[in-house]
Predict the structure.
Amino acid sequence: MADAPESPDQSPDRKGYWPEVIRLTLTLLVLWFLVSFGAGILFREFLDQFHIGGAPLGFWFAQNGSIYVFVALIFYYCAAMNRLEKKYRIEG
């Protein structure tokens, strides 16, 4: 049985959807870069004056923190994409 054609007011807005997806993706990639490369390498000396769990903060970010942030970003990305798909009526 064929699906009924969508009415114009219920059709997906793909022109608005893709810019938001790209913006979200680039924002999260920049955040991931800043945490993994920035905190672990570029700003290591500054962060090493603080300690977490007995380890210098720069070292902690390089070894553990960037992984935790990466996993949190995955969950955030999933939730944000679900919101965008509902907003633009995109079925996945």
